[in-house]
Amino acid sequence: MRIAVLKERAAGESRVAATPETVKKFIALGAAVAVESKAGQGASIADADYAAAGAEIVHADGAVKGADIVLGVQGPDPALLKGANAGAWIVAGLDPFGQRARIDDYANGGFEALAMEFMPRITRAQSMDILSSQSNLAGYKAVIEAAGQYGRAFPMMMTAAGTISAAKCFVMGVGVAGLQAIATARRLGAQVSATDVRSATKEQIQSLGAKAVFVESVAGIEGEGAGGYATEMSEEYQKAQAELVSSHIAKQDIVITTALIPGRAAPRLITDAQIASMKPGSVIFDLAVAQGGNVEGSVADQVVVKHGVKIIGFSNTATHLAADASALFARNLFNFLSAFWDKDAGRPVLDEEIGNAVRLTQDGKVVNERLLGAQ
Ligand code: NAD
């Protein structure tokens, strides 16, 4: 059983799918691990650290030669997979809806592509969930970045020269990223409020010491929502939400938006008119900018100034914390593969529930129901 770890090639991607810690653990399971030279550079991990953990350092040419499993943060270009064993697994964040043509290439190449973002939201899969581990860091980074762009301080300060009032921070969308954004903004001393469409988040917001701001006139999504996910809301709800946001947002200094709907463009939560109502110098961080954006006019990786308000957002937020993001991502992959490790077979053998959820391609065909259903 040979596992290959490729250097990421997507623009701006600094993470890596294995760390010396996970390399050591894979070797302890009986696998051989090959790591492409400089794969860890963006995450401050040297080739020598991988070699000390027992990995073979290989060069781009033939990096996947003889591999049974190829690990990636993002899906590798199929051209890089020449030489991998027939039926090799590609285990990565494959962006199944966005990279459909590439998924077909994996099928045609005879690979078994496993999309880690399709990990089901069940208790036993929590430690394997790349969306959670990366969103958590992204929520933290959004607040830190917004604080960096804000020309004022977050905490209330009583100084000899007078008092500075605390920043008011509003978090829209309280999933994994939103909860971490609330916690981070609170730690920095801001006065925090938050909203979501799922009623289960109300208690979570309050337990973090923030104020829950919810649409009350129209029913939202009961409890957690299906599989923990939101769906598109009715027009009536959207109208009520827009009114609520309009009255609340004008008083906010920092807004962090994180709202996502799986397989769809991100819902639009903030309009240009609402931005115009905010105080000049306020900052909005749009964590959904790469999925179409929650904020009108947000552009990935640019500071857009509208009505004196700075609107920011990264196309890939977790990559800005590459060392920690890689450490958690790599553990997610190890937790996944080791949970299914079959000692006799000397390789992982997936069960039906998780296997069917994450497997996109098999025996030359696209087999994933969620992906086929989206056609
Ligand atoms: P997400 O990234 O899909 O969406 C972010 C948030 O935006 C969600 O809370 C969603 O309800 C909200 N949202 C969507 N449309 C909105 C709108 N129009 N207005 C306001 N908010 C809107 O969500 P996520 O971070 O992946 O987490 C969602 C839930 O799933 C959480 O409760 C989390 O605890 C749970 N979860 C469970 C597991 C597990 O059990 N293995 C793993 C991950 C997440």
TrEMBL record:
What keywords were assigned to this record?
NAD, NADP, Nucleotide-binding, Translocase
So what EC number does this one have? Answer: 7.1.1.1
Top-level taxonomic group: Bacteria
Q: Which reaction does it catalyse?
A: NAD(+) + NADPH + H(+)(in) = NADH + NADP(+) + H(+)(out)
SUPFAM superfamilies recorded: Formate/glycerate dehydrogenase catalytic domain-like, NAD(P)-binding Rossmann-fold domains
Keyword Nucleotide-binding listed: yes
Q: Where is the Alanine dehydrogenase/pyridine nucleotide transhydrogenase NAD(H)-binding domain?
A: 147-313
Boundaries of every Alanine dehydrogenase/pyridine nucleotide transhydrogenase N-terminal domain copy: 4-138
User: InterPro entries this protein is in?
Assistant: Ala_DH/PNT_CS2, AlaDH/PNT_N, AlaDH/PNT_NAD(H)-bd, NAD(P)-bd_dom_sf
Q: Write out the function statement from the record.
A: The transhydrogenation between NADH and NADP is coupled to respiration and ATP hydrolysis and functions as a proton pump across the membrane.
* Family, similarity comment: Belongs to the AlaDH/PNT family.
Matching entries from PANTHER family are given as: NAD(P) TRANSHYDROGENASE (PTHR10160), PROTON-TRANSLOCATING NAD(P)(+) TRANSHYDROGENASE (PTHR10160:SF19)
This one is known as proton-translocating NAD(P)(+) transhydrogenase
Organism this protein belongs to:
Novosphingobium aquiterrae
